């Protein structure tokens, strides 16, 4: 795909990105009354820019209502954004229709959270894996059976299982089938939406290892959506932290986990329990007050200001509620970008020596 | 009914050799197979296990909440505050449930009654178990909502569960559970459905209430991180019984049973160095509807010996006598082996199953031996 064929891209072309998202906004209408009149919008994703390089894993973390799943679903066109572009190799996926769209769907595949409801219970494993091949006219005729057997082997399942139904498998095995289905059409990008969060710990590790192994072997690119920061640290190269439909911090895994500069990232990381009692006892924990505000009515200025421990510590500066902070690079931390008016103060307060335990209870 | 039977020497709750079965048309699943543990007054015990380990079933049994037609308790004893609970009638149990033992669940939305206000749901428990007047009950409900950290409690009392956020519903459920000042709170995956910042709020709330009210807590969870910050002791369940138990700190730092060490090795940790490979426990848990002659973990164990296929190990003390640690294992790894995930004895190979067993189950073979 050449640059000339690019559609709808405003930003200058930067070679190297497989996926480029610009100013993505996905808003869902709120309707009320019998006439279902629109009375507002849930701004699930509200101006997000992201890019992923080939072979890279970008982790997308955030709590419920952060918009992380909505972004994933927008990329595979399971919902329609209001504005923005999603470019894969320079082609804006959002401008595609009909046959072109269908052909391009092959490039991006999704792995879902729930391996129980994402597989059709009335189809055998063979039929489940056959469907994407039929849709895209791949491995036809006698090659079909061999390809399905190969896919099953690839995800660590016995090809003898081909005639079995989903209910005959455990959760981990079902997730392997879901991964095999995504791999069937040789996608460029896999959007994995909480692929291990429904699995038991020991099985979760098997599936994480499988995803890493497949990436090494086939050069896959992942958008890995998860709420578990320990899992994301393990699998991702870069991480984007979302809060109420916006990226509040993004950067290389090592930098972001070791030197977070956004108060929300700092609080999130401090809240993740570590299975070590001695460590837990001495750990500094920032407990945020209240709940995540509704994305239908996000707070003014910085969206995090209503729950921000740093703002309180700094004596509630006006700026936080008045002015929305832009996502800006941290000069001393290559690759890290933070959307906060006081990133240095945040990083300073997060340092282990500083006593900043905020306990509302 | 004597309430103050709890002497200091006597545990608050004592579960002895508990068995629970689910009876289906063609098969009987032995979900709990000889479970024994004790909780002292004010203590927090965490029961940890994966799906199907029997951890939730054992808690539901204490409260007589199992489906009566399909489940049965063929053996075992549960003594709470000096009283045997197994075999009590529903009426007798309901005097204890909610009053002396309260329970909170993972899913607050489906545990709360959608058509009653939060106030009504709290006062309902008070009216059942105490002699408070309605104005006293109202005052107590208000006090409880404030205790669990719900702001604007007077107004919130009049609201319905759907008007609460997920974290607030969990708080409301805790308020209801605490209404009659139970001596034991059973918390079944209390934070699993919550976001991480809300989870931190609820865990610190439970820790605070426990010390303020002096209750014992039975925490049931799959999350070893949650356990680390909250529990005094830990009991790890596998295939319907405890395979390892001891003080939380020492079990997590130095797991002795192959299953416990395998669980800890498969868990991605926030403080892990990047690029570390997870070492999952290969294979799957056994089918509890079939006969398990030997150790149920043997097919997945890298330390198994001949005896493991034949004889189911009992829970026996391990490490120093005063450590309070026990495991059910014939051949457990050393600390170095537990970290490595395999035996370090030269030439050691996990024992092959006897022919009769090999036909029926999938056995995990170490990678070195397989290649």
Label this structure with key terms:
heterodimer; A: 361 residues; alpha/beta; 8-stranded mixed sheet; 4-stranded antiparallel sheet; 12 strands; disordered N terminus; disordered C terminus; B: 371 residues; Rossmann fold; 15 helices; globular
Provide a short characterization of the protein structure.
The complex is a heterodimer of chains A (361) and B (371). Chain A is an alpha/beta fold and 361 residues long. Helix content of chain A is 32%, strand content 21%.
Layout: helices, strands, pairs:
The complex is a heterodimer of chains A (361) and B (371).
Chain A: E1 19-32, E2 37-52, E3 57-61, H1 68-75, E4 83-88, E5 91-92, H2 98-105, E6 108-111, H3 125-135, H4 143-154, H5 171-183, E7 189-193, H6 201-218, E8 221-226, H7 229-235, E9 238-243, E10 246-252, H8 253-258, H9 263-271, H10 277-282, H11 309-313, H12 318-322, E11 328-329, E12 337-338, H13 343-350
Parallel strand pairs in A: 3-8, 3-9, 6-7, 7-8
Antiparallel strand pairs in A: 1-2, 1-4, 4-5, 9-10, 10-12, 11-12
Chain B: E1 13-23, E2 28-39, E3 44-48, H1 55-62, E4 71-80, E5 83-84, H2 90-96, E6 101-104, H3 108-111, H4 118-129, H5 134-147, H6 153-156, H7 166-178, E7 184-188, H8 196-213, E8 216-221, H9 224-230, E9 233-238, E10 241-247, H10 248-253, H11 258-266, H12 306-310, E11 316-317, E12 326-327, H13 335-340, H14 355-360, H15 367-370
Parallel strand pairs in B: 3-8, 3-9, 6-7, 7-8
Antiparallel strand pairs in B: 1-2, 1-4, 4-5, 9-10, 10-12, 11-12
Helix pairs in contact in B: 4-5, 4-7, 5-7, 7-8
């Amino acid at each position: 795909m050449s640059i000339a064929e690019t559609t709808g891209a405003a930003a200058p072309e930067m070679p190297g990105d497989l996926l480029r998202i610009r100013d993505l906004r996905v808003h869902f209408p709120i309707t009320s009354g019998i006439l279902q009149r629109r009375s507002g919008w849930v701004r699930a994703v509200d101006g997000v820019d992201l890019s992923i390089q080939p072979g890279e894993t970008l982790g997308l973390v955030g709590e419920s209502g952060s918009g992380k799943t909505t972004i994933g679903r927008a990329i595979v066109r399971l919902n329609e954004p209001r504005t923005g572009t999603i470019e894969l190799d320079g082609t804006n996926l959002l401008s595609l229709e009909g046959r072109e769209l269908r052909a391009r769907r092959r490039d991006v595949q999704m792995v879902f959270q729930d391996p129980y409801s994402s597989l059709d219970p009335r189809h055998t494993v063979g039929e489940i894996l056959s469907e994407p091949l039929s849709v895209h006219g791949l491995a036809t005729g006698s090659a079909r059976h061999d390809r399905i057997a190969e896919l099953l082997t690839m995800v660590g399942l016995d090809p003898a299982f081909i005639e079995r139904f989903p209910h005959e498998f455990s959760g981990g095995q079902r997730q392997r089938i879901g991964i095999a289905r995504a791999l069937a059409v040789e996608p460029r990008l896999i959007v994995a939406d909480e692929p291990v969060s429904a699995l038991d710990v020991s099985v979760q590790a098997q599936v994480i290892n499988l995803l890493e192994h497949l990436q090494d072997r086939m050069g896959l690119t992942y958008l890995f959506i998860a709420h578990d920061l320990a899992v994301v640290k393990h699998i991702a190269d870069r991480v984007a932290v979302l809060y109420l439909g916006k990226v509040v911090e993004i950067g290389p895994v090592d930098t972001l986990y070791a030197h977070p500069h956004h108060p929300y990232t700092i609080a999130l990381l401090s809240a993740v329990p570590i299975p070590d009692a001695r460590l837990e006892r001495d750990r500094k924990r920032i407990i945020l007050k209240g709940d995540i505000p509704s994305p239908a009515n996000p707070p003014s200025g910085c969206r995090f200001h209503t729950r921000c421990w740093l703002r309180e510590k700094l004596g509630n500066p006006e700026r936080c509620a008045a002015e929305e902070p832009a996502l800006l690079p941290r000069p001393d931390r290559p690759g890290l970008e933070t959307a906060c008016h006081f990133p240095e103060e945040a990083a300073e307060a997060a340092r282990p020596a500083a006593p900043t335990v905020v306990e509302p209870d | 009914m004597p309430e103050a039977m709890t002497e200091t020497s006597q545990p608050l709750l004592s579960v002895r050799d508990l068995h629970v079965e689910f009876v289906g048309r063609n098969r009987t699943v032995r979900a709990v197979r000889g479970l024994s543990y004790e909780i002292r007054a004010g203590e927090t015990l965490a029961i940890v296990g994966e799906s199907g380990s029997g951890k939730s079933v054992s808690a539901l049994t204490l409260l007589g909440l199992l489906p009566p037609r399909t489940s049965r308790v063929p053996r075992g004893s549960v003594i709470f505050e000096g009283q045997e609970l197994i075999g009590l009638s529903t009426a007798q149990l309901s005097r204890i449930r909610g009053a002396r033992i309260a329970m909170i669940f993972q899913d607050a939305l489906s545990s709360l009654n959608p058509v009653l206000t939060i106030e009504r749901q709290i006062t309902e428990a008070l009216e059942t178990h105490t002699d408070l007047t309605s104005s006293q009950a109202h005052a107590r409900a208000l006090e409880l909502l404030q205790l669990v950290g719900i702001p604007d409690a007077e107004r919130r009392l009049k609201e319905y569960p759907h008007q609460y956020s997920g974290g607030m519903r969990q708080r409301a459920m805790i308020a209801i559970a605490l209404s009659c000042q139970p001596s034991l709170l059973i918390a079944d995956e209390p934070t699993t459905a919550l976001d991480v910042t809300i989870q931190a709020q609820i865990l610190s709330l439970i820790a605070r209430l426990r010390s303020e009210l002096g209750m014992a807590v039975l925490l049931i969870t799959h999350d070893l991180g949650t356990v680390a910050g909250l529990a005094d002791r830990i009991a790890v369940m596998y295939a319907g019984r405890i395979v390892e138990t001891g003080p939380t700190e020492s079990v997590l730092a130095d797991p002795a049973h192959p299953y416990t060490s395998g669980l800890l090795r498969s868990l991605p940790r926030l403080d892990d160095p990047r690029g570390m490979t997870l070492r999952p426990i290969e294979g799957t848990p056994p089918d509890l509807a079939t006969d398990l002659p030997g150790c149920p973990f043997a097919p997945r164990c890298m330390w198994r010996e001949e005896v493991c296929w034949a004889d189911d190990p009992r829970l026996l003390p391990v490490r120093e006598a005063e450590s309070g640690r026990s495991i059910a294992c014939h051949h457990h790894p050393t600390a170095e082996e537990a970290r490595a995930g395999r035996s370090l004895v030269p030439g050691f190979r996990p024992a092959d199953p006897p022919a009769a067993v090999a036909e029926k189950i999938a056995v995990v073979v170490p990678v070195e031996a397989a290649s």
